[in-house]
Protein 1
Amino acid sequence: MSQDDSVAVQLPSRGRGNSRVAYLNRSIDQLIYDFMEDEKIPGMTLAIVQAPYIPRVVGYGLSNAETGLLASTNTLWPAAEISQAYAAIAAFQLVERGSMEITDKVSRFVKDLPEAWKNVTVLQLLQHSSGIPDYRKSPQYDAARDYDPAELLSLVRLGDLEFPSGTDVRQSATNFLLLSMVVDAVAGMPYEEFVRQR
């Protein structure tokens, strides 16, 4: 093998893509296994896309560590923070339509909030500057369980704000949970349906 053969495979500018699934002469599989071990990732699904072709789709590891269920090409993974963009766009669509203001208090739309949360605004949810604790950090939170929004709020509603609203920034999944509840109330339909329609 010449020295030129050991360089990274370049994706073709046209044609059917490249069938070789290696990078710098290391198999993609080994790169993924090493990455998963380093980052302590129990499982994932990978697609190699060389548009318009997809030469490889494969599952690695486990999709459920408790049951030992293997990850596959059909595994549905939680969307996590990616879903925050959808909630933000939905909120801004409602602002553009004149249904609410970005500076409105969340308590205007979501009832029975703790007293400490009553002055939090929609903008503070979007900025992660509300100070509301992240339900994922609650000792009672179980990532493998399905919750409804009220159950998730109950995990943190008795705690204090982590900082006065608007004075700091700290990511909290509770912010976007509340934002989706605002969209529910303002749109007059379930958040998921609003997002699908829009």
Note: Residues 1-7, 9-13 have pLDDT under 50 and may be disordered.
Protein 2
Amino acid sequence: MRILVMNPNTTVSMTASIRATATAAASPGTDIVATEPLWGPESIEGHFEGYLSAAAVLDRLATLDTPFDALVMAGFGEPGREGAQELLDVPVLDITESAAQMAMMLGHAYGIVTTLDRAVPQIQDRLLTAGLLQRCAAVRGTGLGVLELEQDEARTVEVIIETAREVVAAGAEVICLGCGGMAGLQEKVAAALGVPVVDGVAAAVKFAEAVVGLGLATSAHRSFAPPRPKAIGSWPLSAHLPSERVVGANCHTDFSR
């Protein structure tokens, strides 16, 4: 089984961190590959960058020449998953819904610790659309930007723990890490809190393995039917850009395994 994990931003070091977490969670025999878009924002902190990223991710998926059995989209609360479900004939899972679904198996109410406060409404909207908001006790921002997460891991963990304590006080019995850039920090946070902490990347990988193992895939009956054939000007976009203008042209992508 091969699972593709897509970092929605163009920061190569974050792709590497996400890949490491996904690989650690994967079962023996599951091949994890990871990549990021060829263009787009270096981090996603708001709707504008989210929609740019969604287009860049779809562009990347449309031009990949490697087979995979499932896709994990490693953006928390960001748009684009539905488009990928229409584009691909393999299961597509995102870390937001995967984290929340797993958390609800572990406690009555869950909460989310994310990056900036401006991300909170976007995550809440995603949970509401997915029917998962009712059992969410709180979503809180740490005040850390996405790129700040990698600058000082000890400080990042400290701030996540401080914020998570507020979420637990609000009624959460399980904590979800609300950013792909927090991948791999769950054990340190859980040790300090004494409650389960769910990493969305790891959760999505395990759900992807289960879905593929059961021989299931996204329904193409109505909502996620393949796109209707029509002309789309300049699509895919990356095929029309000079290589020197493509951010992340030397992607941290390894499909050799």
Note: Residues 245-257 have pLDDT under 50 and may be disordered.
Protein 3
Amino acid sequence: MRSTILLISAFLISSFSQAQILKKPIPDKLVVLTFDDAPASQYSVVAPLLKKYGFGGTFFVCEFQPNYADSTLYMNWRQIQEIDRMGFEIANHTHTHANVSKLSQAEFNQQLGYIEQKCDSLGVPTPTNFAYPGYGLNTDALEYLEAKNYVFARAGGSRAYDPLSDHPYLIPSWATDEKNKVEIMKAFEQAKEGKIVVLTIHGVPDIEHSWVNTPPELFKEYLEYLKENGFTVISLKDLEEYIDVKEAKRLIKPDFSKKLSN
């Protein structure tokens, strides 16, 4: 009898927590596409293809050092502004692709503030979401993000995002490259039973960083698969339609024992 009561109590607590965190149920086949580092191909290849397929996406922009000034390698701010005008989310990846686990709060604020000010000067909405450059993070970084009222932060980990157990500042993702097609296709299958698949994509292609290169043909293949199989493809910001972030932060303790890098 006692064990039955305990099971019922646990079920009720779980159901109550779920009702608080979720504004509405997470549908199967929900995928979030995110794009890091602002390589030039995100403007010339990625954004037009997303528009063609009717998909959302989040672009985590920075001024990647030391070759940011080379316009053949990276987007300029007018191109980033155009991506915003196309309806995609512009989010923060720090000014210089900095490892935030090594920054003081003042340095962190300066890094994020630079991107925020550039967006403001061009009429781009102030970023509310963040991705950790190189997946460098620590407990301080989460506190700094909270102090600046950021909503979500994306990490790595090569696993699905569970809004009921993963803290909003520790959203896991898979990173694509030219060699892991099988892994990514299997990842899409995990977008079910309340879990969300988040991808980290760099250049399509990525000229300067070959280890994270995604060939355009492979990227198109992913988009075609998602379209043909009825997936809903959104930006990170769109997750606010499903998740009460304030409640998620209150109820979910950050778990650094989980894999958070790719």
Note: The longest strand covers residues 30-36.
Protein 4
Amino acid sequence: MRLTLRVWRQRDAGAEGAMATYTVDGASPDMSFLELLDTLNEDLLLRGEDPVAFDHDCREGICGACSMVINGEAHGPERTTTCQLHLRSFHDGDTIDVEPWRAAAFPVVRDLVVDRSALDRIIQAGGYISVPTGSAPEAHATPVAKPDADRAFEHAECIGCGACVAACPNGSAMLFTSAKVNHLNVLPQGAPERETRVLGMVAAMDEEGFGGCTLAGECATACPKGIPLPSIAAMNREWLRAARRTAG
């Protein structure tokens, strides 16, 4: 396959960025999109040029690091992570635009790399369960109803890639935050802190400069792990309940 890549190049957060055009020959349909970028970078290094900076880690669709917009879609045309997107999703001779996440809360660090630490700070505001130190409790010590366990696992699948933010026309992090709130709040272990958790994490989300949610639904469409849109409604109910109790 012969592919033309139009890639966003930006030296650092303070520099002006622009699209640069490259051609990659001999790409295989079985290559992942990250392997295509690896091939491009090998060619650039051989020519004495700076390689394209992009985030990656596990390359197994688990870590959520490979964040980029491909032809205007978060992670590309398939509902998966960029590392699991293969070139068979494209055609020989295609021109492909590759850009970083576009959101005020995700400043560009270099090229396709953005600073997603705002998501970490949301988790730090309440995405945990406070427990005494010591040995792990017996697995069956706290029974969990099957429907609650299923809901918790459904939301715990969120890998924090930020595709929901990049896809949202408002740059909202509501789907991410709701996944992190709900997967703990539905468990009995998370019940004691459920109110402080949702209030703290929503406040942290607002402080980071993410946009407001208008339920456009693009976030759930782009999510590679299928976090459902009703997750946001469930978190909103949790937040209203907690806010009323705090105000009262």
Note: Helices lie at 33-46, 117-124, 146-156, 163-167, 174-185, 194-207, 218-222, 230-247.
